[in-house]
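User: I'm writing a short report section on ligand binding and want a predicted complex to refer to. Could you take this sequence and dioxothiomolybdenum(VI) ion and write out the structure as tokens? A short remark afterwards would be nice.
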Amino acid sequence: MPQNDNLTTLPVVGRARKRIDGPLKVSGTARYAADFDFPTLLYAVPVCATIANGRVASIDTSAAAAMPGVRKIYTHENIGTLYQVSKTSKAMVDEKRPPLSDDTIRYYGQYVALAVADTYEHAVAAARAVKVHYADIKAPSVSTELSAAQKPETQTERGDPDGAYEKAPIKLDHTYSTPTETHNPIELHASVAVWDGSHFTLYETTQAIMNYRAVMAQMLGVPTDNVRVITEYLGTGFGGKLWPWSQALLAAAAARDLHQPVKLVVSRQMMFHNVGHRPHTQQRVRFAAEKDGRLVSIHHDYIDQRALLSDYQEDCGEATGMLYSSPNVRVTGAYAERNVGPGTSMRGPGKVPGLFALESAMDELAIALQMDPVALRLKNEPAKDEMKNIPFSSRHLPECLTRGAEVFGWSRRNPAVGSMREGDTILGWGVAACTWMAERFSAEANVTLFNNGTVQVASGTQDIGTGTYTVIAQMTAGLAGVDVDAVKVVIGDSNLPPGPWSGGSMATGSMVPVLIQAVEQAGQQLIAMAAEEDGDFKGVKSDQLAFTQGKVHRKDQSPDSGRHFRDILTAAHAAQVEGHGKAKGTFGQKQKEYSTHSFGAHFVEVAWQPAIARLRINRTVTVMDAGRIINPLTGANQIEGAIVMGIGMALFEETRYDPRNGKAVNSNLADYLMTSHADMPGQMDVIFLDYPDIHFNAMGARGIGEIGLTGIAAAIANAVYHATGVRVRDLPIHVEDLLTSKLV
Ligand code: MOS
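Assistant: Sure. The structure tokens for the complex follow:
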């Protein structure tokens, strides 16, 4: 650790900075996976199953194979060997079955063949000409009424929730549901695979290049070192691009067979079946409370929809044991198998649907108690994590609630339903809490300080559109005492030192200890150089010198008195010094000393016009307790984006499967409704409390990618109830639901 230096207050860190990659993106120079081109590039187009439950009897490829420009048609008979990831491996993949590895069809759209041709158009035409004959066709199971196929698993339990529930004076028992949601990043999933006879170079759309390399190596059956994964830029992923999907294996297998680069871009329609979704959930919440509002018991029993051959679980009850104080709690999870493609993490997995149920139920409890919903939450603020029985590292949920209430003007709220009118419009005000875990992945980075005063930082992580390039540059600049413009960030290549996944809101926090250590190690070399130099530090022992923000100085003097690395390197006739940082992660480890989470609160105003059945989100106020914010501009952007996405979750998004064939009927951006500009709130206020969490890392920075989507759908549903008197427990809220409102 650098001497006498508070790393929570470094220069540059904590300042609003525009994205350093912004100009590359708006000028079209940033290269995305599908942009990579080669003179001998071939194009692959999959053939997708048109049934969801049955098997392939035969595939007639003869007509397709004879079409112009076609190089080869692949089926399960000639794709070549693809392996499963070993069960003992930590490599993550949600579609575990290699593509084309058997003749069973488990979901609509499953890849059954692949056409490879010299142009995209030829490949499309050939894919259409492949004739697939199916047998044993059965009706798919896609019902949205979920009942557990097995005994629910208890996930956390304390006290006697059943006994306490029976005895309590105030009780609530409601079931909430959230639909299947499809990620729909604007950049389509894409794979460009190059094989040179021994090594694969894979240009991929991924949020985790290092994991991608591990999975692809195992499934292709080559050593990890023979796979290189490149993701220089990503047009977002929302979790859908965390792990590899089958198209990457198809492209790589075809490239291996044909010895030519192969590009496969997944179409928008395929993206509704083949690259994951947030599973449909059904959640029963039971609360018991004393008349003063104290929660005496919480039950949260959820069932999620699960694909065949999948073990992805939408962990809805993850926060239930720690968000509020209650001596008696039980959370159970179960699943129902369906003929759908594998589910996967979608921004805020588990907690986002979970907090829709929990925070809706808190609002219903407040109404039953005739208590203010902010006051109810304050009343149940825990003094520690009661699930793990350890203190929180830094928890300021009450301040999020009180500050948000103040900025929003909550004290002017009339709790009576439909009571706040503006002409023909009824206003509804709702609130909900937010939370997301704070963990770090293991990571490594190299930082090189050059004699011209510039710095390079290199790590095998990636920027998924969230601002990772920029915050890594800021943190490195702050530590190395240079301007952000002097830092070159090299990421997006698995040949670099292994960096963190962009998942779980962990990339930034994971980089903190690594960057500190790398800069410190470079600094040690500069100290040694400076001590040998015939200059300022002549005769000073190196253990009396420190390196702080780019300068070597005497420990008993201020860093300002020191000598810049540029001058030390120049005097030593050295081009550079390089430091390496490596830190072990916390993710997946048992938390021993502190429970580390972020918190927040959303306040929402909706406007309901009963005469024309029009619902709008007028304004939102969000207060976040997410530790030290490295860049308030990209940070606020994350929260705003999550609110926009949350409006979609509350009002629009749902993937619907046709019960006849299991097809997602709205598999396009016209029918799968998402928030558009016209649906945006007139005003979104985002406030960061900015308390550094120094138990988490030395800069005190937790993550902010996902927390904004937790709670927002509940805050909207609660506001809608306040405006209309209609409690919608099944998302999304359709305007039709509100036509039952008695208010005019
Ligand atoms: Mo996030 S769902 O871990 O990309």
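A remark for your report: The radius of gyration is 27 Å. Residues 207, 238-239, 242, 345-347, 349, 503-504, 706 surround dioxothiomolybdenum(VI) ion (CB under 6 Å).
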